[in-house]
Amino acid sequence: MNDDDGEGLARLLNSVFEAITAVVSEKGSEDESVGKKEQKKSRKKKEKKKKKEQESEDEQLARRLQLMEAEDVSMLAPQASGAGGRAEEGEVDELRTCQLEEDAIFAIQLHQEMNRRGVENHDDAERERLRREREREEEERKRKEKQEEEDLMMALRIAEMGSEEEDNDHEAERGDLNSVRLSNLPEIGSERKY
Question: What pTM does this model have?
Answer without folding.
Answer: 0.29
